């Protein structure tokens, strides 16, 4: 809200108060949401640029609150991260997504991966590798079909701890991807030491790929560097065929985005598998 001018100061800002109230409301409602089944996991297909086949899915949280309506994860995830509730929430998403993937596997679909987002908070917990193993055992999902998406903010922790946890997860046989690559803090020197299978190019770079020479250069550099480290590359937020064609010429392996599909509930996601015949 606009205040009176330089030097004037309002102790009680109604607009700011509204934000605080909204945050508190969401914070309080989130615990109930999990217990009362208001949360759902949607799945967004990941597609091979070369073959056009669906090679994976990213699990994304959705929340439909009975009175507040749909609340974006961009709004409630940061609140859950601040309070620490993200650890419980993230565990629920991992279990739900792994169970879904195991169900699809049981239907005969065996060449796809299920990617789940991991908060740094989850990553900081030394019990993470045993939790992942527990989820694999409980669901029966083959380890190589589960992928953990970590963000560059994990570089804010001790490097040896980070590498230790990554290696312990890797030893279980799961895949590791660096999410939102290029937007965060990671040093290229550390990147080389992380046992990553793939880099995800953030949609901030993909958005203007065909118009902005700078974004094109960054994307080209990320793909080249990933390949020289033996990692594959997936681009997120692909909305146009122009973007897809450009990514193809750069040698980017996979893409994800509205061009192919938005995140959808499981009964729609399963239709993405080749040769699916309902009934
Ligand atoms: P993210 O991990 O970078 O996920 C990609 C976001 O881009 C998703 O937003 C997805 O719906 C959106 N998106 C996908 N394709 C396109 C496209 O072509 N165009 C545009 N404009 N957007 C596209 P969403 O689902 O709203 O999630 C936002 C963020 O919330 C995620 O960003 C992730 O950081 C976080 N999040 C969502 N679910 C979870 C979760 O289970 N755990 C954790 N820790 N974070 C989550
Ligand atoms: Ca992600
Ligand atoms: Ca991302
Ligand atoms: Ca993002």
From TrEMBL:
Origin: domain of life: Bacteria
Q: From which residue to which does the signal peptide run?
A: none
**Which residues belong to any copy of the EAL domain?**
23-277
What's the protein here called? GGDEF domain-containing response regulator
Organism of this sequence: Rhodoferax saidenbachensis
């Amino acid at each position: 809200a606009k205040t009176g001018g330089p030097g004037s100061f309002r102790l009680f800002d109604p607009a700011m108060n509204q934000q605080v109230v909204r945050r508190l409301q969401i914070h309080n409602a989130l615990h109930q949401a999990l217990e009362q089944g208001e949360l759902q996991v949607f799945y967004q297909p990941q597609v091979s640029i070369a073959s056009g086949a669906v090679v994976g899915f990213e699990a994304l949280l959705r929340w439909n609150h009975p009175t507040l309506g749909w609340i974006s994860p961009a709004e409630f995830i940061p609140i859950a991260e601040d309070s620490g509730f993200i650890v419980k929430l993230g565990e629920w998403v991992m279990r739900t997504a792994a169970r879904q993937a195991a169900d699809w596997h049981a239907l005969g679909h065996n060449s796809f991966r299920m990617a789940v987002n991991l908060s740094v908070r989850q990553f900081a917990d030394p019990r993470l590798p045993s939790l992942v193993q527990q989820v694999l055992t409980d669901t029966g999902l083959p380890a190589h079909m589960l992928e953990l998406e970590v963000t560059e903010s994990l570089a804010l922790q001790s490097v040896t701890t980070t590498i230790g946890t990554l290696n312990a997860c890797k030893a279980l046989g799961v895949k590791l991807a660096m999410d939102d690559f290029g937007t965060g803090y990671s040093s290229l020197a550390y990147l080389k030491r992380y046992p990553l299978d793939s880099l995800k190019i953030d949609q901030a770079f993909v958005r203007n790929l065909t118009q902005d020479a700078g974004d094109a250069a960054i994307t080209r550099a990320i793909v080249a560097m990933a390949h020289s480290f033996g990692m594959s590359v997936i681009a997120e937020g692909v909305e146009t065929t122009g973007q897809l064609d450009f990514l193809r010429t750069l040698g980017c392996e996979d893409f994800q985005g509205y061009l192919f599909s938005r995140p959808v509930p499981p009964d729609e996601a399963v239709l993405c598998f080749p040769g699916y015949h309902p009934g």
